[in-house]
Amino acid sequence: MKNCSLLRFKPQLFLLVFCFLFLFSSCKGKSEPPRIYLDDAFYWALSDVDSTIDDAINLDYKHLDNMGYKNLMDLVGRDGEFIWLKADFELIPELKNDDLSMVIPYLHFADELYLNGLYIDDYGVMEGGLSNPMIQEAGYVANLFDFPELYLKQDGINTIYIKVFCLGHATITDGVFIGLRQDGWRTSDNMTFWRSRFYMFFEGMMILCGVFFFMLYFMFDKNVSYRRFGILNFLTALFFSIFFITDIPWAGFHGGIPFLIYVKFVKSICFFAIEFVLSMFICSFIEYKLSKFGTAIQYLSFLISTTMVLLSPDYVWLFSKTLVMIPISCFGLLCSIAYTIISLKNPKVQTKALFVLIAMGVLFSIMGVDIIIKGAFRNIKMPFISIFGLTAVIIVFFVYFCRDYSKIARRLEYLNKGLEDEIKLQTEKLTSANKSLQHDREISLKDMKMAAIVQKKFFHAPEHSLKNWDFAVRYEPLSIVSGDLFNFYHEEDLLNGISLFDASGHGVAASLVTMLAENIIQQTYCETLESGERVADALKLINERFIEAKGEIENYLTGILLSTKENSDGSCTMVMSNAGHPYPLYYNAKEKVVEELLPSADMPYTGPVGLSGLGVEFSEMEFTMQSGDILFLFTDGITEMLNDKKLDFGIDPIKAIIEKYNSESAEQIISRIMDRMEEFIADTPRVDDVSVIILKRA
To answer: Membrane-crossing residues (predicted)?
Structure first.
């Protein structure tokens, strides 16, 4: 068991031993490069903006006792005084006869350096002092000055003079040394990287996070938290640029944006905006709905601080009011934290609220440590760990969102898998049901075809000619079976009458109603014809019998019942009774006009057949047809046929054809009417059965 335990920890032990070996091997053999440290060699003297190196030589210097953060500000204040620093040194043997470099880890605000009265280099812009709007701080870079061998006294005293513009937290830190050129460059680059250019990596990371969450917001989910978090990342990235402003080509002495304006917007307003957006983000993250008053507080805390920055006339005023503006700008953020504490009572967002409080607690703790390092210990050479804290908080929220999004993605994947399985199952069921339905449909189709055959046996025109009549019929169901019915009542070639009815509805139900109705109509008509009763009475009896026969069936009929009587002079007397059906068209050959056979005003109202409780009375009208006269009977399927413009075919085209082609046969006339209808509707699907009968007096 012990051997197994050792084997389990063998990789970890191997890694630990490797790290120790690497550490000792990397340290062994390294020697300290030759250097001259100047921390105790500096003296200072107060001067003015116009003082030169010649003036500096004659000043009365005092020893600079403190080499730490804000040491020069403690001596002369923060309002832009000028001082000269002086340091003497002698070259040690290891540094003689070579080009050297001097490294000042941190010097603020701006400076220019002279060696033995000769100008070497400067950092920042201080010419003209506060009256110059283009002044610029040296930044957070280490100040590196190259001393050519020619400028150095190989034996004797070398003197360094540094003119310093003491604006704000004026500082020269300890750790100032003179060494070999390569040593100075390497040390300066290392310091500059960790205090300035190192933040470029954070800036790039924040920009990528911002782009990622804006893509989420605009392309996938309109979650306001995503938008605010994206803005927060962009603002943080912009704020980080203040740490490497000396490397930015569009700001400061490089040209473009003056340093003061850049500081106002990037260092101050951008910081306030980060607080504001962070505050609003917290509210949306914990799903806390701000009241109008709460929203006003958030905006006011940001706007008041921003307005003070915009109105600041110079760097001194801006710097002096910072301690006033920061608490004002933080007020909205503190309110959001208070809302978060309140939200701990809400079980729905309790986890999110606790997450925010932990993250903000970590951030404020790190900022507190940073304040202690920079304020109490006055160590400016260390990086601003508050930036690491803010970045860490943003990264933690980023990880939270990614984890949350990943959970949603996994949930969707699970649901999609379940949905696929469910779709597969339902597809199998639908396929089985479709097969069953297809089978049932085939059976139904066979039954309907059989019903259509039966219907055509019942409803068809006479197969032989009728005495003194030329007739033609078109019977076109919408589907296989029809809701229209007609019949010719004749004895041999003698026509006694015609019926044409239209059942309400379409399809099978209407066709079954026609079969029931046809039996009643034919039986009743034959009975009344033999007894010599009126056509209207026959229609009334049909109505009564149909109502009784159909029972609960809701369908009804409209129709025309027509009787004919041949006269000795060759004419024919027509008696017609209408049951709510479209009025027939009558062409009078003598007068050469087509008219609708409308009832007179004194005739009672006639309604459809099969509606109980209406007390319908049927009237009849009588007219005589002479040679050449034409009677056109039809159902509403032809006149209400629609085209693609939703216009109906109507009765006018039928009238026009009958008038124009009255001399042609009934078959020719009916063909022209049907062709004209087909031309009118074109590809528009039909919506009703069509039945048409033409009677032309020979």
So the answer is: 198-220, 232-253, 265-286, 293-311, 323-342, 354-377, 383-402
Give the Cα separation of 654 and 677 in Å (integer). Answer: 9
- Please give the structure tokens belonging to residue 330: 């933080």
Find, among 597, 614, 592, 506, the residue nearest to 560 by Cα.
597
Burial class (CB in 10 A: 0-12, 13-18, 19+), 38: buried
| CA–CA gap between residue 660 and residue 265 (Å, rounded) | 90
Nearest to 276 by CA among 337, 311, 232: 232
Question: Are 642 and 685 contacting, i.e. CB atoms less than 8 angstroms apart?
Answer: no
The strand pairing partners of 486, in sequence order, are 500
- Average pLDDT score over the chain: 87
Output DSSP code: residue 644.
Answer: T
CA distance 606 to 637: 20
Q: Token pair for residue 124?
A: 């920042």
Q: Which domains does the chain have, with CATH numbers?
A: 35-197 (2.60.120.260), 199-384 (no CATH), 459-697 (3.60.40.10)
DSSP state of 98: S
Contact between 72 and 24 under an 8 Å Cβ cutoff? The reply is no
Q: Which of 217-231, 442-456, 504-518 has the lowest mean pLDDT?
A: 442-456
The model's pLDDT over 122-156, given as tens digits with 9 standing for 90+, comes to 999 999 998 888 899 999 999 999 999 999 999 99
Angle at which helices 270-285 and 292-311 pack, to 10 degrees? 170
More confident call, 476 vs 178: 178
Tell me which H or E stretch contains 473.
strand 469-476
Q: Is the pLDDT of residue 2 over 60?
A: no
Instruction: Look at 200-204, 394-398, 407-411 and tell me which has the smallest mean pLDDT.
Output: 407-411
Specify the pLDDT at position 447.
Answer: 61
